[in-house]
Design goal:
Length: 230
């Protein structure tokens, strides 16, 4: 076994860095409006909701807010716990949208990123950016969305989804041309599934923004401010 020896100065630096990190994390957590509930603090209805979420497909996703080791839930689910019956309905809808959409994971995650950008939902972007890239979204496309710009390297299916989401978010309507392109490519089920992912993740963005959910590890906010601010 190899032994490592640290000088008192080096050890002091390590301790200071650790204390500074902990203080930073605590400062972020102090901004959170909905205290993260430990299992001992939950009602039976809340514990049932935790079990329903943790027994679903989210728990298999590394880094998911559903699979912490201490039995608590990250947001938005931590906020859903405040209204557990409603929260259970919402998490079931969200689970279907994420894991059973006819659009496939890449386009679904792209739509989530567009929604996160529109709402400047920092935690939503943080949580789904890596999932979008893992699903095959070009990092340049994601970066353009983050900057509030139309991506120039989109594939045809991505451009159709981008046009639909962007137009729906910014105008609250949809032109005949944009609708036709979407229904021709994905069918009426695809249209409904895309409406659903945008709508559900608006709710999630609202939840996270009201909660002021912090980025883990005191990481900087991933989305820059846009001009004009959204």
């Amino acid at each position: 076994m190899r032994c490592f020896h640290f000088s008192k100065a080096a050890l002091a630096c390590v301790l200071v860095a650790h204390v500074s990190f902990q203080a930073s994390v605590q400062a972020q957590e102090s901004q959170r409006r909905f205290k993260v509930l430990a299992p001992a603090e939950m009602t039976q209805a809340q514990r049932d909701l935790v079990q329903n979420i943790r027994s679903g497909p989210r728990a298999a996703v590394a880094g998911s807010a559903a699979n912490s080791n201490d039995g608590s839930l990250g947001s938005p689910f931590n906020v859903f716990l405040r209204s557990p019956e409603l929260g259970d309905h919402l998490q079931k809808v969200g689970s279907h949208i994420r894991f059973k959409s006819s659009l496939g994971q890449k386009l679904n995650e792209m739509a989530i990123l567009i929604t996160a950008r529109h709402w400047t939902a920092q935690y939503e972007w943080f949580a789904h950016h890596r999932l979008a890239l893992q699903a095959g979204l070009d990092p340049q496309v994601a970066e353009a969305i983050a900057q509030g710009k139309r991506p120039t390297t989109m594939k045809d299916d991505e451009a159709i989804v981008y046009n639909f989401c962007q137009e729906l978010h910014t105008t609250t309507r949809l032109s005949d041309a944009t609708y036709k392109a979407m229904v021709d490519a994905f069918g009426e089920q695809g249209v409904m599934d895309l409406i659903a992912v945008n709508g559900y993740y608006v709710l999630v963005a609202m939840t996270l923004n009201v909660d002021r959910t912090p980025i883990p590890g005191d990481a900087p906010a991933p989305l820059p401010a846009l001009t004009p601010a959204r």
